[in-house]
Design brief:
This protein has a single domain, classed as TIM Barrel (Alpha-Beta Barrel), CATH 3.20.20. It is built from nine helices and ten strands. Strands 1, 4, 5, 6, 7 and 10 form a six-stranded parallel sheet that branches. The protein has 280 residues and is of the alpha/beta class. Helix 1 (26-38) runs parallel beside helix 3 (72-85) and helix 8 (247-258) packs across helix 9 (262-278). The model has no long low-confidence stretch (mean pLDDT 97).
Length: 280
Amino acid sequence: MKRAQTVPVLMYHHVSPVEGMINVSPSNFERQLQWLKQRGYKSLTSAEFAGHLQGTPVPARSVLITFDDGYLDNWVYAYPLLRQYGYTAMVFLVTSWINDGPVRHHLGQGQLPQTPAHRECEDRIAQGRSDEVILRWSEIQAAQADGTLEFHSHTHTHTRWDLSDRAAEKNALMAQELDLSRAALQANLGHVSEHFCWPQGYVDADYVRIAQAAGFRYLYTTQAFGQNRPGTDPAHIYRFAVRNTSGYSVGRRIQVAAHPLIGPLFNRWKLWKRARRRKP
């Protein structure tokens, strides 16, 4: 088997037919999965990805698919399409947003629930209406049962404590977030993994230390310009955001990310451009 030198990690939030930021339409999501399928790509589980970072070989054409926050549309649209094409994904859950209740319909069943755009989801969560836009424990358990989706921690409240009026307490508050998240996952799923994703992408050295002390080893960022190679730091996993675009476009980005020569050059160029824009 030809082994992967690096594994691109794809970051999604929403798969829904509504227009909106950080959303991919079901038709484009299916085209992206078709592109992967037609070219023989494998989606890794969290355990396989962890093994890759530790040096265990995985197929050259490997990707890791991730979703942040745990929106209802992940169940309604993403889950049945992933299952149809034989792919798996990781979902990072904000545990305080999750409620109990019966499983709702997904694609291929009866009348589908509404899946609002991201801004509307944020508004409803702020109003205490998260059940209208977030996965229920019953749906999480159903999607986990057949192996299509895995579920991991994304904190308990998704709060940027460093920007809050309690910023001086941010480390203690983050430790509390992790404890509450772990307790909810253990109570409802029976396990907690070593994989964790930072809320809103913010991380600093204190937060890394706190997460590691809480039992999280594999820490996922929103930083796109780096490569996840064997032996690289599991506390700094790179991911790139997938846009609402064709399978070919996403595929080209995957190929660049995984290329041993072009990938590092592309990343250095993008970081150089970003630094240049920040200069006064």
